[in-house]
Write a structure and sequence with these properties.
single chain; globular; eight-stranded antiparallel barrel; mainly beta
Length: 157
Amino acid sequence: MTDPHVDPLVALWRGISLDARATETTTQLAFLANGMGWTEWTTAAGGIEVVGFRWRPTGPCGVEVLDIWCAFGLTAERDAIEWDDLEWRDDPPFTLDIAVSPRSLVLSGSLGGATEFRLLRREVTYADCPARGIAPDLGSGIVDEVNHLPPEPGRRS
C-alpha cells in the first residue's frame, strides 16, 4: 500500500530563489521513494555541491532528514563534472515542516539553499544524481551504521 505522506514528495524539484533577479545559482532537490535524496547546488561560475541524505516522513506535514555525504566539484557541462572531494557528514538529523501541493513544495528551513521549490518531474531515480559516479547510492548497499535515523515510533527494528 502506498503511503499518502510520502508520494507527494517523491519527485525532482527546482529551487526558487529568494531574490528574483538572482541567476547565479541553481538548486535542485530530489526525494526518492526508497528514502534517499539529494540537493544539487550549482553556480554560474561552474561550482557544484551535491549533498546526499536519507529522509522519512514524520506525518502529513513534516519530514526528517539526515545528511550523509557531500560532494564538491567543478563543471562546465552537467555530464562533465570534475569532482574534488567526497566528505562524509556527521550531522544530527533535523526535521522540517513541509507544505506540498501537486506542483510546489515549501519547507520551513533551507535544503540546498532554497525553501521553495517547483516540480520538475515526478519520475526520479538515483541515475539522475549528478554525484552518482563518486558517491554511494544510499538506497541500496550502504553500511547500516551510516543510517543514524532512529526507528519510526511503534515500529520494531
